[in-house]
Amino acid sequence: MKNKVFVLFSFLLFLNACSYPESETEQANRLAKTYQLDIKAGDTRLFFPEQFAGINGKQPTLEMESTSLEDSSDSLDGIETALEVYPVGFVSKVIDVIYISGPMLMEGAEAGGTYSSNSIILVNISDQNGTNFNFENSLKGVHHELSSLIYIRSPFVIFAWQALLPKEWEPVSSNYEALTQNKNIGPDYGNGFLSRYGKTNAENDFNIYAEFAFAEPEKLRELAATYPIIAKKLSLFITAYTQVFPEYQQGFEEYFTRTGLSYVAVEPENVEMTIQLNLSNIKPKIIR
């Protein structure tokens, strides 16, 4: 019996010695197969987002340096952790590709990522490998950039979200201004803003809610239980994700229930009335 145990132990040691770490390319290919979308790096000219292209002789307002998958191990780990949160098939319903770029300047200011009509782009900084920067930027960046594509598909939420913003509040005038806000200014929970950046415009506000909802749900749950305005915004956020594609409604409802976010979300007072009004106006057009 001792000999059999020794042989088995020796065999397991042999298998362990023969195994090797997964390469970055292998990880990207595995994630691509699992989530039915491509994950690429390389020449940034091949994935330059259309909204930043220069027109009428003007220079593009976005600059990106190239990087490689081999230099993006931490970013790939962040992407993998983020993708695990969503219902199966959801992300590939929204985008076809996740691109990884090197340092990015948006209107001359450092940025962590952006999106196009069918992709998101996440920044990987080579000098930050081995720190937590690239992992966190990709983890939160997936949620952040993907949420913009949910936001623009949710006209009712856009309208209702605006109604919850402070009357005296005004959005910033440019991406540069949003990205170079005074970093010493913290969140404004009392007015429903989870971060300094979220306060710069309504879409950025929604983006930051996505970061918290999918990367730090416990923190968002605590804030929503404390601040009524955050609870109302959370309700609209949940509405956007549960209604954008009917086939994923149950998956998101289960996630928001499991994390406790559904229990602290509070529907804004005028939401139900507004929905009924909109439906009564739209219905005759649908019948025709």
Element string (H = helix, E = strand): HHEEHHEEEEEHHHHHHHHH
Proportion of helical residues: 40-55%
Q: Within the largest sheet, what's the order of strands?
A: 1-3-7-6
Taking the sheet with the most strands, its summary is:
4 strands, mixed
Distance between the termini: 81 Å
* Radius of gyration from the alpha-carbon trace, in angstroms: 22 Å
Query: Which outline best applies?
Result: globular
| Total number of strands | 7
Mean pLDDT: 89
Low-confidence stretches: 272-288
Number of helices: 13
Strand content: 5-15%
The computed structural class is alpha/beta
Q: What would your notes on this structure say?
A:
The structure is a single chain. The protein is of the alpha/beta class and 288 residues long. It has 13 helices and 7 strands. The strands form 2 sheets. The chain has a 4-stranded mixed beta sheet with strand order 1-3-7-6. Strands 2-4-5 form a 3-stranded antiparallel beta sheet. Helix 2 runs parallel beside helix 3. The radius of gyration is 22 Å and the shape is globular.
Task: Summarize this structure briefly.
The chain is an alpha/beta fold. The chain has helices at 2-18, 24-35, 73-83, 90-94, 133-151, 155-163, 175-179, 202-215, 217-226, 228-243, 249-258, 261-264, 271-287; strands at 38-40, 62-64, 97-101, 104-106, 109-111, 113-115, 119-123. The strands form two sheets. A four-stranded mixed beta sheet has the order 1-3-7-6. Strands 2-4-5 form a three-stranded antiparallel beta sheet.
